[in-house]
């Protein structure tokens, strides 16, 4: 069930991105509204259903783990804050998982995708469809859009955290997110 959810989220994001191009090239209001409706119905519903399936599978796995480990773990004090080094940032980036996002995080994620879509629309409108953009310039534009999107996501994440609104799901003390590496490779966790 979890893999189906992950597949739905990934495929929904791909369809969502591909729907931005017809929206950008819509010539009439009817075409624009039609593509917006299709974008809202198909990829967005796939993404939401996929998120729901992943969350349900994750919650079932947590319940099973809790039943397996009936004994309560001793509560330890929180670890000291780690020094922010390049390796720390790399580790945080590698461990970032979209399954950890709460509703604020998903809104921020989709706002970031919307920012990318708006930037693509602006580039298409400025350069027009008749004029060809040379590949070197296209790479520069793509890099600027990517950096702007990453900067927007990280900046808003920082701002929301400073305001007391985390974008990741909060876990109970001592509870961690499930490790999916063993279940995805087909291994049983109980062994």
What is the C-alpha radius of gyration, as a whole number of Å?
21 Å
User: Roughly what is the average pLDDT, rounded to an integer?
Assistant: 76
How many structural domains?
Answer: 2
- Percentage of residues in DSSP E strands: under 5%
Straight-line N-to-C gap? 21 Å
Described by the principal axes of the CA atoms, the overall outline is: globular
The ordered H/E elements are HHHHHH
The amount of helix comes to 55-70%
Number of DSSP strand runs: 0
* Unreliable stretches: 173-191
Class by SSE composition: mainly alpha
Number of helices: 6
* Main sheet: strands, sense, barrel: none
Strand and helix map with partners:
Layout: H1 2-24, H2 29-68, H3 86-95, H4 103-127, H5 135-162, H6 181-184
Written account of the structure:
By secondary structure, the protein is mainly α. It folds into two domains: 1-68; 100-170. It contains six helices and no strands. It has helices at residues 2-24, 29-68, 86-95, 103-127, 135-162, 181-184. The protein is globular. The chain starts with a helix and ends in a 7-residue tail after the last helix.
